[in-house]
Design goal:
Elements: E1 10-11, H1 28-40, E2 48-52, E3 64-66, E4 70-71, H2 78-87, E5 89-90, E6 106-107, E7 109-112, E8 116-118, H3 122-138, E9 145-154, E10 159-163, E11 175-182, E12 187-189, E13 192-196, E14 199-203, E15 211-216, E16 220-223, E17 226-229, E18 231-239, H4 257-272, H5 278-282, E19 287-290, H6 307-319, E20 329-336, E21 338-346, E22 351-358, H7 360-366, E23 380-386, E24 395-409, H8 413-417, H9 423-438, H10 445-460, H11 474-486, H12 490-500, H13 503-518, H14 524-536, H15 540-550, H16 559-582, H17 587-600, H18 603-616, H19 621-637, H20 643-660, E25 666-667, H21 669-678, H22 685-688, E26 691-692, H23 695-707, H24 711-724, H25 732-750, H26 761-778, H27 804-812, E27 818-822, H28 825-835, E28 842-847, E29 854-859, H29 865-876, H30 881-886, H31 888-896, H32 907-924
Parallel strand pairs: 1-24, 25-26
Antiparallel strand pairs: 2-15, 3-4, 3-8, 5-7, 6-10, 7-9, 9-18, 10-16, 11-15, 11-18, 12-17, 13-14, 13-16, 19-24, 20-21, 20-24, 21-22, 23-24, 27-29, 28-29
The structure holds 2-oxoglutaric acid and fe (ii) ion.
Length: 930
């Protein structure tokens, strides 16, 4: 297996002759010519360079003498530095005696060449050495003259802003560049930044010490501020004979005429491929060309290319008209028996695609190389070795990697970049285009938006069956939306919201719209429609969340955001009647819906448009109960809802819900889900129209009436539940009715009146009916318990003990598993001691809470339904609440479950008996006839 990096580019086209008859591979001759033309491009040199100098070239070998200071000792001492500065003047910016001093542009001390003298003969040799370095680095073959110009001293804070050394009048005839010798003196900062044609380098005089630097006069350069020490340099003007053509960085251009010719022939050949031919449809014309140097995967980009590779690629870049992003790219390729592109980047190094498999043939057909093995000469970078593995022998895997450029005709670039498009590829390209749109400096926003639109449609637009090719990744979709807004592409925005607006996308889109609208960077009216359309495909329950994202309550908003929010609410209201009729609305919807109305503070809207619908649909209890929860809070803390009137509405709605709802139809999400799992995902029709409710919501209905002391409603509700309890589905106790009792007992038991007033008999009746029905439906069928939980009673020596009789009742009960004793420490110790006689038959634990700790006694063993139910009831009594509501006696009766076995009745009879029991008790409690 091999790994290789490849680099590839796009080629501008001029009108090529069309010859549809000639379809076939690229003529070998054309490929050889292109390769030769590329191979022949050699760059003569760079536009700037830095080289280190040996310390021994300085010291006494400099022989520097400065007018007014005398001989300068090396290394330079602080005192002489001060003396030197005293002789200097502030360096002006520009040339000549009139040049202005502007310390915000240039801030450094200077001495003229005429004030300096080098008395050591060795110095001339050093200077020659520096000139030689310059000639080689800048690629200059004619003799060079270096003329001392200034000595500069940069103190802490000194700098020279970006400039070129080209001036209208030449400092010396034939001048083409600058040579700087940085003398040995430690400093930090003060590095020289050079820029030419988009490439930037930092020549670090702070690191390479002492050093020689050189650059062409047309190169932009800047001395960064010195942060400590002194930067001490000599500057020289560089010139060649004025008769010769002046070398400049701009002329570093290689000769690319031959390359242009051969590429032209290739494009002509490409043009002969009929657009209609099968081959043309399948293939994207492109050529791979191996680069001369090795590049690290992370750094590969045009600016990182080494001179010769750079010259080869720049040829194409120079000829490129502004024809859109992705017009040229580098490609990083991985071969793996078959080949893959590891990383495809553009000339800036921005990622286009990664891990892109390509055909062996694709590589071999399109590689312009003179050797058959494209990886010949490429070092293998990695080896993976596996030792002896059974009879499969040992294996070694070699990875080879090389960098290459890809040449692609401009008209085929888009096709090339979106070859073999999978979700990951689409994601990567869309992010690339989005970045182009979001870059304010990019001249390519317009074409990028177009590419993005086409690609988004290809990737995300659902087909006629509603399937899209690629799954939308939230982060990518949001980048695309941002880019669409930045480039004013509202069509793109609206389409993407329609195509890829998943719940998560939509949530982030609402936040995005809010932020951009508040920043004044988005016209809300342009995006409103698509966002409302996406909402309309969703359950009303989700709308209020989106609304909250768009206009968080109490937070800053704007007129257009407010308007959009109002429209969302109006649309929800408009749909309400229809949705209620269809029976799809549940408790969450009611809650969320009312939350939206509450947030809008629009009582009129509520009264005229919502209330009639609520009143007409009280049989859809969950929705109305959900809405009631919110409406009830409006009675106390809403500015726009009139208190008394709202309270009346809450009461009358509660009343009609109580009288119309059928509690046997109430279900919970959990049971419906469990049913769906049993039926393997097939929703049975009643499931869809089931009234799904949360036990807490049902308890809330109770609580609202309780808190407002609406006694008639409490009675009606209790009676209704008690009456319908025997018909409740067995499956609904676990998730709905027992948790409901938990809530009910919880708030009754903790209400402030608990200690003074005994619980109303109607709660006792309601609770008993539910518990009897629960046990009848779940335990009633079970044969008499085989594993009894009965344990021997304990012996208590104290005649007056108030705890042991209770303890023994528990121990001797065949069904009870757990008992709790909330008693003081001495009594707990007594209980623990007497229980010692039972050995491992019970476990003891203490619970914190209340006035003293509670001793919890649990029997070991027993797994029947009966035992499990008993445990559940004991849990229900955790705080003593169940016993408080139904009384000790009933508690013992219910836990004993004796009523289930009355005369060995079968289930049906037990149910009847249960109903009869309820009626009798209701009459006794004085609720008859209600
Ligand atoms: O101090 C340097 O290294 C460069 C100075 C410079 O750019 C100039 O004198 O024009
Ligand atoms: Fe300069």
């Amino acid at each position: 297996m091999n790994v290789s990096e490849l680099l590839v580019n796009s080629v501008p086209e001029t009108g090529a002759a069309s010859n549809p008859g000639n379809a076939g591979a690229i003529p070998r001759g054309v490929m050889v010519d292109i390769r030769k033309a590329l191979d022949d491009i050699q760059t003569p040199g760079s536009f700037s360079a830095i080289g280190g100098l040996a310390e021994h070239r300085f010291a006494d070998r400099l022989g520097l003498h400065v007018e007014g200071v005398g001989d300068i000792a090396m290394p330079l001492q602080e005192e002489q530095a001060r003396q030197l500065i005293a002789q200097c003047r502030q360096a002006p910016y520009g040339k000549g005696s009139e040049a202005p001093v502007d310390t915000s542009v240039r801030n450094t001390w200077e001495l003229d060449a005429s004030q300096l003298e080098f008395r050591s003969a060795a110095w001339a040799k050093t200077l020659d050495h520096c000139v030689e370095f310059t000639a080689k680095s800048l690629g200059i073959s004619s003799p060079i003259v270096a003329e001392l110009y200034k000595m500069l001293i940069y103190e802490k804070g000194a700098m020279f802003k970006a400039h070129t050394d080209n001036t209208s009048t030449e400092k010396i005839p034939g001048m083409f560049g600058t040579l700087v010798i940085c003398l040995p003196l430690p400093h930090t900062g003060g590095d020289l930044v050079v820029r030419h044609r988009g490439l930037q380098k930092t020549l670090q005089t702070s690191v390479t010490q002492p050093s020689v630097l050189c650059w062409y006069s047309d190169v932009h350069h800047e001395v960064l501020p010195v942060t400590s020490g002194y930067r001490w340099v000599l500057t020289y003007n560089l010139a060649i004979s004025p008769d010769l053509v002046r070398p400049t960085a701009a002329l570093l251009q290689p000769d690319t005429g031959k390359l242009q010719q051969s590429l032209g022939r290739w494009l002509e050949h490409v043009g002969t491929q009929s657009e209609e031919s099968e081959k043309a449809k399948r293939d994207v014309p492109h050529l791979y060309y191996l680069l001369a140097h090795e590049y690290s995967e992370a750094s590969i980009a045009l600016r990182a290319l080494k001179t010769t590779d750079l010259a080869r690629l720049q040829h194409d870049e120079d000829d490129e008209d502004e024809d859109g992003p992705g017009a040229r790219h580098e490609l990083d390729h991985v071969y793996e028996t078959s080949v893959s592109i590891k990383k495809l980047v553009d000339l800036d190094g921005s990622l286009l695609r990664s891990a892109l498999d390509i055909d062996d043939h694709d590589l071999l057909d399109n590689l312009i190389s003179d050797c058959v093995d494209p990886l010949k000469g490429v070092d293998d970078r990695n080896e993976e070795y596996q030792g002896y593995m059974g009879n499969s022998g040992s294996t070694a895997t070699h990875w080879y990697r090389t960098a290459a450029t890809v040449l692609v005709p401009r008209s085929s670039t888009e096709k090339f970049l979106t070859r073999d498009l999978d979700s990951r590829g689409a994601q990567s390209m869309l992010r690339y285009y989005a970045a182009k749109c979001l870059d304010p400096k990019s001249a390519q926003r317009q074409p990028a938006e177009e590419y993005m639109h086409r690609l988004a449609s290809r990737a995300w637009e659902p087909d006629s069956r509603g399937w899209s090719k690629c799954s939308p990744d939230v982060g990518t979709v949001i980048e695309v939306l941002k880019a669409a807004i930045a480039s004013g592409g509202y069509d793109l925005f609206n389409n993407v919201v329609a195509w890829a607006g998943t719940d998560a996308v939509l949530a982030r889109t609402f936040t995005l719209v809010r932020n951009l609208a508040l920043a004044g960077r988005l016209d809300v009216s342009e995006v409103k429609k698509s966002m409302l359309d996406s909402l309309s495909k969703r359950h009303v329950a989700n709308w209020s969340d989106y609304l909250e994202l768009l206009c968080p309550s109490e937070k800053e908003s704007s007129a257009d955001l407010d308007e959009m929010a109002a429209e969302i609410v109006n649309q929800a209201v408009k749909r309400l009647e229809g949705d209620l009729k269809s029976g799809i609305l549940q408790e969450n919807d009611g809650f969320a819906f009312m939350l939206m109305i509450q947030r809008r503070q629009d009582y009129d809207l509520f009264k005229t448009c919502v209330l009639p619908d609520l009143e007409a649909s009280t049989s859809t209890a969950p929705f109305v109960l959900g809405a009631l929860q919110v409406l009830d809070t409006c009675t106390s803390d809403s500015k726009s809802f009139p208190q008394a009137e709202t309270l009346e509405i809450v009461k009358s709605l509660s009343k009609s819900v109580i009288s119309t709802m059928d509690i046997t139809k109430l279900r919970t999400k959990q049971t419906l889900q469990a049913e769906e799992r049993r039926t393997h995902g097939h929703k049975t029709p009643p499931t869809q129209l089931a009234q799904v409710i949360d036990p807490a919501t049902l308890a809330e209905l109770f609580q609202i009436s309780f808190e407002h002391a609406w006694d008639d409603l409490l009675m009606a509700l209790s009676l209704k539940i008690a009456a319908q309890a025997p018909s409740i589905l067995a499956s609904e106790f676990n998730f709905l009715w027992i948790p409901f009792l938990e809530h009910l007992i919880g708030f009754l038991h903790s209400s402030p009146t608990t200690t003074t007033t005994p619980p109303s008999p109607r709660y006792k009746q309601l609770t008993l009916s539910l518990l009897e029905s629960y046990l009848t439906s779940s335990v009633g069928r079970e044969p008499a318990p085989s594993a009894s939980l009965t344990l021997p009673a304990v012996h208590c020596s104290s005649g007056a003990c108030s705890d042991c009789p209770g303890l023994n009742g528990f121990l001797e009960s065949p069904d009870r598993r757990t008992a709790r004793f909330q008693v003081g420490k001495a009594r707990r110790t007594h209980l623990q001691r007497v229980l010692g006689s039972l050995g491992g038959m019970v476990t003891l634990a203490t619970e914190q809470g209340g006035r003293s700790e509670t001793l919890v006694v649990t029997k070991v063993g027993g797994k029947s339904q009966r035992h499990r139910r008993a445990t559940r009831l004991e849990d229900l009594d955790e705080e003593g609440g169940l016993r408080w509501v139904i009384g000790e006696e009933e508690y013992e009766r219910i836990l004993g479950m004796g009523f289930l076995r009355r005369g060995g009745e079968v289930l049906g009879a037990a149910v009847t008996a249960g109903v009869a029991g309820v009626k009798r008790s209701a009459e006794e409690a004085g609720m008859g006839g209600y």
